[in-house]
Write a structure and sequence with these properties.
Elements lengths: L14 E4 L9 E7 L18 H7 L2 E5 L4 H5 L15 H16 L5 E11 L1 H10 L10 E5 L10 H14 L15 H19 L22
Parallel strand pairs: 2-3, 2-4, 4-5
Antiparallel strand pairs: 1-3
Family: Belongs to the type-B carboxylesterase/lipase family.
GO molecular function, one term: hydrolase activity
InterPro entries: AB_hydrolase_fold, CarbesteraseB, Carboxylesterase_B_AS, Type-B_Carboxylest/Lipase
């Protein structure tokens, strides 16, 4: 969704770091912030409160905030369109995993302790933390969490449930199954129209709003533990 204050780009796999020291031997605690907005919208800098300077200075910690792919860019599940797309519904979460791997490998250069990493997030950010806790790919990349709301969301969609959303978007874009790779060339403003089409159809079919989540497959993602 267009944002009032900041420019947008599909190239959103980046992070921000605030640190009171760049001495390696400091080994300061690391706090990784994951923003809210569900898995639909938002960014690591969307409000001034997300600036980590004060927290880093007064808390004597290294603060990291991360951006990642959202909405259809991060969670469009094209599982049925070929082997190379089997894990397309997870790429938004895998961006977060990649960020945590980067932190583990590099945060010592910014005075941080890679063995003392806490995740914290609000609303959708809190829910993404729950999802990371249920993803084997994130194991060992963090050591504690602080979840600030967002725990009540359902997360039981499977590849089968996601088919209708993918089919609606592909249909709107007039892409044939054998040419599915064309979807990678679609500019976001056109993709956004297809997303709105899928939203409308989902509401008509189910009487509720579509919420993007990674599909539960008990391999990449095990689902919300509250729903077990």
């Amino acid at each position: 969704e267009p944002h009032f204050w900041y420019p947008q780009s599909e190239f959103c796999q980046n992070l921000n770091i605030w640190t009171p020291s760049i001495e390696k031997n400091e080994k300061l605690p690391v706090m990784v912030w994951i923003h809210g907005g569900g898995q639909e919208h938002g960014s690591a800098i969307e409000i001034i409160a997300y600036d980590g300077e004060e927290l880093a200075t007064w808390g004597k910690v290294v603060v990291v905030s991360v951006n990642h792919r959202l909405n259809a860019l991060g969670y469009l599940d094209l599982y049925e369109y070929g082997k190379e797309y089997e894990e397309s519904g997870y790429v938004g979460m895998m961006d977060l995993v990649a960020s945590l791997k980067w932190v583990k490998e590099n945060i010592s250069e910014f005075g941080g302790d890679p063995d003392n990493v806490m995740l914290f997030g609000q609303s959708g950010g809190g829910f993404k933390i729950i999802e990371l806790m249920q993803m084997p790919a994130a194991d060992g990349l963090y050591h504690k969490v602080s979840i600030h709301s967002g725990t009540g969301r359902d997360s039981t969609f499977t590849h089968e449930n996601n088919k209708e959303v993918a089919r609606d978007i592909v249909k709107f874009l007039n892409i044939k199954k054998e040419n599915i790779s064309e979807i990678e060339t679609i500019p976001y403003y056109k993709l956004a129209k297809a997303i709105n089409y899928a939203y409308d159809n989902f509401m008509k079919r189910h009487g509720e709003r579509l919420q993007w989540t990674p599909p539960v497959d008990y391999k990449n993602y095990f689902g919300n533990p509250q729903m077990a």
